[in-house]
């Protein structure tokens, strides 16, 4: 049965996040002839609208209000709710990003919808939508479906392949005037100050080079950054490294940090505590570098290198440079 699907297009620093395109790919899969609508918030979104239509949106609802240029819970909530009421979708998808994680439960609660969060796969089985999500810190997966009513889900980045861009596609674009209850917008973004340097976004990176307490100092992260740069990836960390003050908590991966699913995860000087594995064990290929052959990280690694990271990481960087740079 065909389904009308609504995707909230997540924007960061004015750019469309890849997970928005992944949501569109999932939407096209489940729509089965229904209309795929994307909604995008904020002024100056012309290129974004094109990207959305090239990647599967049949219709794009824009809300070009400057109050939506930076994310705030209240403004996004009000705009998204009004878009949902207008589109009346059977399925609503957002990325499992900071924005999706914040706005989705609020909308779901207000509209009395169920919410399946952090999904890694979406499929249609016997005409029913089935969502897969990790449980027990990534040790098992559960498949869920909704018996009736609107289905609302957040999708974990890097799990659903993006549709190839079809530049011949153009979506029907509609600007929606939303009304904001001014006193309901309780926050105002005056300035955005980045804690981390520019570079590849950790939660969407295809390659993550992560350091643990074994990195030993802030300077110890330099060889990891060099390797990440050669591979076009991002640097992450264990909580051990963050707690020791070697890096910022923004890099923390795990149960209480970011969840990543890159194509390649290189763990350097990380023991492999269950709380760390919760954030990276679904990576497609895991390489562990640790001088302790008994370290539990090796139990989830596809490739293990027993050795000193300060010798192994620069060697890998040099070898990758020969083929990639
Ligand atoms: P360690 O366990 O100290 O491991 C360091 C490793 O480096 C060792 O295996 C050692 O053999 C190796 N090593 C040392 N020198 C070298 C060298 N020169 N070359 C190669 N290897 C070397 N942790 C997270 O990561 N993310 C979380 O989100 C998280 N959330 C938590 C939530 C709760 C409620 C709790 C209780 C804990 C949480 N933790 C989390 C902490 C977690 O339990 C571990 O303490 C932490 O992951 C350990 O970090 P580590 O592996 O860097 O350090």
From TrEMBL:
Cofactor remark from the record: Binds 1 FAD per dimer.
Names of required cofactors: FAD
SUPFAM superfamilies xrefs: Adenine nucleotide alpha hydrolases-like, DHS-like NAD/FAD-binding domain
Record's keyword terms, sorted: Electron transport, FAD, Flavoprotein, Transport
Pfam families for this protein: ETF, ETF_alpha
Superkingdom, taxonomy of origin: Bacteria
UniProt GO MF annotations: electron transfer activity; flavin adenine dinucleotide binding
InterPro entries reported in the protein's UniProt record: DHS-like_NAD/FAD-binding_dom, ETF_a/b_N, ETF_a/FixB, ETF_alpha_N, ETF_asu_C, ETF_asu_C_CS, Rossmann-like_a/b/a_fold
CDD domains xref list: ETF_alpha (cd01715)
Domain called Electron transfer flavoprotein alpha/beta-subunit N-terminal: residue spans: 5-195
GO process terms (BP): fatty acid beta-oxidation using acyl-CoA dehydrogenase
Residues the entry annotates as binding FAD: 213, 238-239, 252-256, 269-276, 290
Classification via SMART domains: ETF (SM00893)
Protein family: Belongs to the ETF alpha-subunit/FixB family.
Name recorded for this polypeptide: Electron transfer flavoprotein subunit alpha
Natural source organism: Paludifilum halophilum
């Amino acid at each position: 049965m065909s389904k009308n699907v609504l995707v909230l297009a997540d924007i960061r620093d004015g750019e469309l996040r890849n997970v928005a395109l992944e949501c569109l790919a999932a939407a096209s899969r489940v729509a089965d002839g229904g209309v795929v609508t994307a909604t995008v918030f904020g002024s100056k979104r012309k290129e974004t609208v094109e990207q959305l239509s090239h990647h599967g949106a049949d219709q794009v609802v824009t809300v070009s209000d400057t109050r939506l240029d930076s994310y705030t819970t209240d403004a996004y909530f009000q705009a998204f709710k009004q878009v949902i009421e207008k589109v009346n979708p059977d399925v609503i998808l957002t990325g499992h990003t900071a924005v999706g994680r914040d706005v989705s439960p609020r909308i779901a609660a207000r509209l009395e919808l169920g919410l399946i969060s952090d999904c890694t796969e979406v499929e249609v089985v016997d005409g029913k939508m089935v969502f897969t999500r990790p449980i027990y810190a990534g040790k098992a997966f559960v498949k869920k479906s909704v018996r009736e009513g609107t289905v609302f889900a957040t999708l974990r980045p890097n799990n659903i392949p993006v549709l190839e861009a079809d530049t011949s596609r153009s979506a029907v674009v509609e600007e929606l005037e939303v009304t904001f209850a001014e006193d309901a917008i309780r926050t105002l973004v005056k300035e955005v100050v980045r804690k981390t340097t520019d570079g590849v976004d950790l939660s969407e990176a295809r390659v993550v080079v992560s350091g643990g307490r074994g990195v030993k100092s802030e300077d110890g992260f330099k060889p990891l950054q060099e390797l990440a740069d050669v591979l076009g990836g991002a640097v992450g960390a264990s909580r051990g490294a963050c707690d020791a003050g070697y890096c910022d908590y923004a890099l923390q991966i795990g149960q209480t940090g970011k969840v990543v699913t890159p194509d390649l995860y290189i763990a350097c000087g990380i023991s492999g505590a269950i709380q760390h594995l919760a954030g990276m064990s679904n990576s497609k290929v895991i390489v562990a570098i640790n001088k302790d052959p008994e370290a539990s990280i090796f139990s989830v690694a596809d490739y293990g290198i027993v050795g000193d990271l300060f010798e192994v990481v620069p060697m890998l960087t040099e070898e990758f440079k020969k083929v990639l740079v």
